[in-house]
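Researcher: Last one for today. Full complex below.
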Amino acid sequence: MSKLRRERVTLADLIRTALLGVTGNPQRTALASLGIALGIASLVALTGASASNQAALLASFDAMGANLAFLRPGLGPDQQPVPLPETAPEAIARQDHVERIGVLETAPAGLSVFRTDLVPETATGGITIAVARPDLLAALDARLAVGRWFDDATRTLPVTVLGATAANRLGVSVPVDLLYIGGQWYGVLGILADSGLVSDEIDTAAILGDQWVRSEFAGLAGVGEITQIFVRAEPGTIDAVRGVLANAARPGSPQWVNVGGLGDLIAARELADDSLATLGMALGGIALLVGGVGIANTMVVAVMERRGEIGVRRALGARPGQVAAQFITEAATLSIIGGLGGLVLGVGAAGVIALVAGQPFVIPGLVLGVGPVVSVVIGCLAGLQPAVRAAHIPPTVALRSA
Amino acid sequence: MTGMDSLDVVPVVEARGVSKTYPDGGAHDGLMVLHPTDLVIASGDQVAIVGPSGSGKSTLLTILGTLEAPTTGSVLVGGRDVTTMREGERAAVRAGAIGFVFQQFHLLPTLNAIGNVATGLLYSGVGHAERRERAVTALESVGLGHRLDHRPKQMSGGEQQRVAIARALVRNPDVLFADEPTGALDSATGENVIELLTEIAGRGTALVIVTHDSFIADQFARRIQIRDGVAIEEVPHHV
Ligand SMILES: Nc1ncnc2c1ncn2[C@@H]1O[C@H](COP(=O)(O)OP(=O)(O)OP(=O)(O)O)[C@@H](O)[C@H]1O
Ligand SMILES: [Mg+2]
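Model: Here's the assembly. Have a good evening.
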């Protein structure tokens, strides 16, 4: 009697049968999967919205300098500042996670800035001189309000780019004026936009090109030496980057290098990072729980209503486990339908929220993958109790009550 | 089955002293709705179970069909004692050897005729495509080749019962149990259904049917009378 083999029902058959149950009562399917749909939708939408929010927040933190570090000469054994070596910028730029760097050189001492050559030297204070290499602008994420920044040609010329505050104090707004600096006329090449926190020292400065200064002021104390290096790290890597900077700049004697950053901003960035993501997960999780209960409810009713079907399948040779598997698969199918619907809904909602808030539209890829997996798991859990119940109904009872 | 059939015939179904007692509120030992019964059903047998309402006909049928466990005694299907089996093995016995036809048809409302009949093979390890092929053949053999795509709601009672018969016979069962298969049908339609069932039985499948209708019962070679749970087989006679 080879007929007595215990035959398996294939996964394809299981899914086919589950789809039957699901399509048999479309209205109930819609209602049952609605809960999961709303759960996944809120998970995706909230996580997406918080990710967008976070991206916007982090971008603004980074613009303020949360991912910025700077190196300055530290004190040597003789308690005198030790200039940063000329090789430092290149060495730092080679480090992992370093996006870009900018270099300030020592300004020649004793230079003052005037609108005319007639004002007495003491009359215009508060404007400093800075000497920049062309890479400084990008490293600081600074923008020009008007005019241009130094390039390979203009870094050799007697021209200046003014910080926003400096331009304001001098009353210069259009880069056609000439300025009288250290006894010489300079053209105004450009004016920087107000850059907020990062470059306080730049805001009040008249910036000169490095090569011009090297040739014009050659021999003066400190000219040509690096006084500060700004380092822009990839988002979220600033701690790691800061750890390697001193040794990269001055291998062997990192203690002579001063590494700084905007500590509070870094801490604030990390805080924002965590709390918003947690909020999204928590709210989505609650919604999913409610959705799971909805599916469990539907399956309990389905098992009661379909006792006749259960009895027939048992009479046809379905094992209790196969009946249970059918209802679990059906619950999982309901949940997947809800999950996919919720995914679409949630991505759409997150998109609208980001659009309205004017934030970058970010959906963490993880959520897209996790959503369907989570709904399958919830569906199986929700279907478990009703399925086991279905499996335990004796066939004759099931047939009689139908 | 082997070539030894003629020498040593294993009955399709055999009941040895099966009885059924339902608990009765604890007042006494319970209500014995089926008294100990012995019964042997051989390949190709046609058996009618008759008796008044409540006498225990369905009880005996479901015990023979392995859907219900007897309180005492044992049931052997193809020589194997199903009463000591685990439910999973019993299910495999049903899937392999037993077909059922019910008074209320019990078709799945969301499936068309092919789907319903193909479900008869779902638990017998037959692949999807073959299930559907064999379902079409079975439906044609019950005269429903033109209603393959119809759902139960679109069919008459007689047609639905023929779909149910196709679902039972698509698996080539050794025995087919039918509990009042004509109970929900008018007499002419019922007569057709009985003709169909006996025709199937003529091909070697044993047929055990419960009926109220003595006219139907008279067409069966073996008749078992149940009264108050006591089953008595009538003396064999020629039809
Ligand atoms: N689960 C149960 N619990 C208690 N008593 C039951 C149960 N199932 C059946 N009975 C009783 O067993 C007896 C026989 O029932 P059964 O269904 O076998 O009768 P039947 O001959 O098929 O009747 P009918 O012709 O009306 O279908 C009845 O008295 C019934 O009330
Ligand atoms: Mg009955």
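The CA atoms of residues 43 and 206 of chain B lie 5 Å apart. Chain B touches chain A through 36 residues (CB under 8 Å).
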